[in-house]
Amino acid sequence: MRRVLLYIIILPAVIIFFGCKKTSFMMDKDAALTITADTLSFDTVFTSVGSVTQNFTIVNPNNRKLKLNTVRLMGGSNSPYKINVDGIASTEVRDVEINAGDSVYVFVSLTVDPSSSGTPFIVSDSILVGYNGNERYVQLEAYGQNAHFLKNYVIDADATWENDLPYVISGGLLIKEGVTLTMEKGCRVYMHANAPVMVDGSLVVNGTKTDSVTFGGDRLDEPYRDLPASWPGIYFSEKSRDNVLTHAVVKNAYRGIICAGPAPGNAPKLQMNACMIDNIYDAGITALGSGISAVNCLISNCGSNISITAGGTYDFTFCTIASFGNSYIEHKQPVTYINNFDDAGNSYPLSTIFKNCIIWGDGGSIENEVVAEKRGDSNMEVLLDHSLYKAKSITGLITLENSIANQDPAFDSINTARHYFDFHLGKKTSPAVDAGVITMATTDRDGNPRDDKPDLGCYEKQ
Fold first, then answer.
1. β-pair partners for 385
2. How many Cα atoms are found within 13 Å in the side-chain-facing hemisphere of 341?
3. Which of 109, 144, 179 corresponds to the end of one domain?
4. Contact call for residues 430 and 412 (beta carbons, < 8 A)
5. Is the pTM of the predicted complex or chain greater than 0.85?
6. What's the pLDDT tens digit per position in 147-174?
7. Is the domain of 121 the same as that of 159?
8. Shared-domain flag, residues 282 and 134
9. Which residues of the chain have pLDDT under 70?
10. Backbone dihedral region of 27: left (phi > 0), alpha (psi from -120 to 50 degrees) or beta?
């Protein structure tokens, strides 16, 4: 009886002791706490458009529970930032318990209010993490950017876009037949994933070497800002004519430029001067029985750089047309594909001339980077004149004149792992140096003069 009574007295005490031990908190001021970021940096965020959500974790590495007295957004309800702490969305969350060896997530996003600034402006705040008399801060920083926001926008009268603010377009941009949209130097055009540029009229781009006109996707945060297929691309319809792109940069599209049908008369439907088409998921240039003149252009890292079908007239002079397989773009198609027939098998006249060009590919399974196919009796001319190309074999459909086969052009710097590509001619001897013939183009894409023995490609070696 005495032993039973002893158990009755001791057992509750043991339960209370261990129960208290399990729920006790680490109260020491020097208790360890790990915060996985001291700063969260957001890329450029357009006003009125929400950002991507970022996060950090607060880790309790101790062998006992830890209580956070507060996790507070210092700007409070007036802050453009929003936080969510362990599933609770508020400007301040108190008494957050973290088990031993466990952690909690803090999610952060922001929406920037419009301002009068024409240039990016800093948007900052901080998050306080308070525990055991300690105060730790995580800094928040972003650049806000005002913009012209256009949805399903139609140009139905001649218009000029200045470079005062970026243009952010959702749903698409349509230039109606008989109408010209002129974009002045420095314009930045950001397209939503559902927003093509459709040209039934004319598009004139007046970029310069130092102030190009840029077309790209509207996701500027990592990793989206460098992803191909971020937006549909630019489509010049059969109705379109008199298009001139100078120092235009078209990047990260599904298709870069689609040019359908010829222009009236002998003039090309599209003239491209010192343009860059880069990081395109499908074809950089898709031409369907059309007419294109391109000088000093860089067409790089596309699923297929140039795809010409159903005939047409094309002149490429001092162009670098190159692709290197990487984690964004698989090199599974030839850099240049040309034919004279449509899907129904009808054949059409074709003239395609590459003069002083580099046509190169690497990092894939392609043996011939220049491929031509012919059907029917229509006239077909494909000429490589003073150009460097990569191909194991060339068919009789392609005429070679003073051209260089299968010699590495020795570009300045190619690092596919880091997605870094510099298509200037490198410091070591390149077979493209002094291998060209004089044309009307006296400067290169950088504006540097070409000498009396011009180099191949869009850049003259300096």
1. 355, 401
2. 12
3. 144
4. no
5. yes
6. 999 999 999 999 999 999 999 999 999 9
7. no
8. no
9. 1-23, 427-428
10. alpha
Backbone angles phi, psi at 10, to 5 degrees: -75, -40
Whether 346 and 225 share a structural domain: yes
Query: Do residues 340 and 350 make contact, with C-beta atoms less than 8 angstroms apart?
Result: yes
Degrees to nearest 5, angle at CA 301 with 297 and 302: 95
Angle, vertex CA 201, rays to CA 251 and CA 268, nearest 5:
75
Q: 444: which residues sit within 8 A by CB, 6+ positions away?
A: 296, 318, 450, 455, 458, 459, 460
- Based on the domain organization, do 214 and 133 belong to the same domain? no
CA 60/CA 35 separation, integer angstroms: 9
Q: H or E segment at 18?
A: helix 2-23
Same-domain status, 242 and 339: yes
Domain boundary residue, one of 112, 144, 176: 144
CATH number at residue 368: 2.160.20
Distance, CA of 216 to CA of 8 (rounded, Å): 77
Give the chain's count of helices (H) and strands (E): 1, 37
Does one domain contain both 134 and 172? no
- Is the same domain home to 326 and 365? yes
What domain range is 171 assigned to?
148-425
Closest alpha carbon to 139 in 129, 154, 131: 129
Are both 234 and 119 inside the same structural domain?
no
Taking alpha carbons only, the member of 322, 300, 320 closest to residue 251 is 300
Q: What is the tens place of the pLDDT at every residue in 46-69? A: 998 888 899 999 999 999 999 999
